[in-house]
Amino acid sequence: MPEGDTVWQATRRLHNALAGHVLTVSDLRVPKYALTDLTGRTVLNVIPRGKHLLTRVEGGLTLHSHLRMDGAWKIYAPGERWRGGPAHQIRAILGTEDRTAVGYRLPVLELLHTADEDRAVGHLGPDLLGPDWDPDKALANLLSDPDRALGEALLDQRNLAGIGNVFKSEICFLLRVTPWLAVGKLPTDYAAHLPTVSKKLLDFNRERPTRVTTGRNDQTLFVYGRAGRPCLRCGTRIRVANQGDGSRERPTYWCPSCQPGPSPQPGTSQLPSRTSASRKTN
């Protein structure tokens, strides 16, 4: 599942493959850009912004993409077979003499003037893996809606950029609170540690092929994906329920013993507190 760490890795692969090279192939397979041709332009750099990727090319243009749940950029050498999925899932192809980058299942793909990048990412809060990271600002953003459930607030990229469903569940476990606890009810010392814990987890994982939050090789995650299995800390069975992020519900994992506090009843879902799916939370 793409989150800030995996997007950072994807961006680095794209940058290493394309930056400084002239595009010899350009194929944007969305109707709006079907006739757009970027060949002959040099790729300047590729940078991440939260879960967004910005590929800047010569001439003041930026190709903005977002992976969402199952999008991917794959890099291939000349003559190498493309293995990212069937051809109908390809949304973008950017090629140089040495490498070809193929974007599969990209739900967001748009070409912007580089000067207008804020139109796509200006709504984002401080980036956990970016040069703009500001823990005080991130915490202030989270606390600005004190009645909102912590899990929802962490997923809202307007508060801080880079956390997805996996890190949301793991961060709440490490803080020993349920994802349904209102942000304003976080103990002061827990709230103070929230930006630090979040930053450490993403920093630790941005260079790793397998996401780890436990420090163990045999059990890499504390709660995410472990419903019905014993908690690594206390042995209680991990539970799972849906929780909204402001636009849709997502499975959320927690230990009812290590994380006391509000939680849905077994077999029920926690409905989103914000129902507008049109708001930019990604």
Helix-strand blueprint:
Elements: H1 4-18, E1 25-28, E2 43-49, E3 52-57, E4 61-66, E5 72-76, E6 90-95, E7 100-104, E8 108-113, H2 118-121, H3 135-143, H4 150-155, H5 165-175, H6 188-205, E9 239-244, E10 249-254
Helix pairs in contact: 3-6, 5-6
Question: How would you characterize this protein structure?
Answer:
The protein has 282 residues and is an alpha+beta fold. The chain has helices at 4-18, 118-121, 135-143, 150-155, 165-175, 188-205; strands at 25-28, 43-49, 52-57, 61-66, 72-76, 90-95, 100-104, 108-113, 239-244, 249-254. The strands form 3 sheets. A 4-stranded antiparallel beta sheet has the order 1-6-7-5, with helices on one face. The chain has a 4-stranded antiparallel beta sheet with strand order 2-3-4-8, with helices on one face. It has a two-stranded antiparallel sheet with strand order 9-10. Helix 3 packs across helix 6 and helix 5 (165-175) packs across helix 6 (188-205). Keywords: DNA damage, DNA repair, DNA-binding, Glycosidase, Hydrolase, Lyase, Metal-binding, Multifunctional enzyme, Zinc, Zinc-finger. Residues 243-282 are annotated as: Disordered.
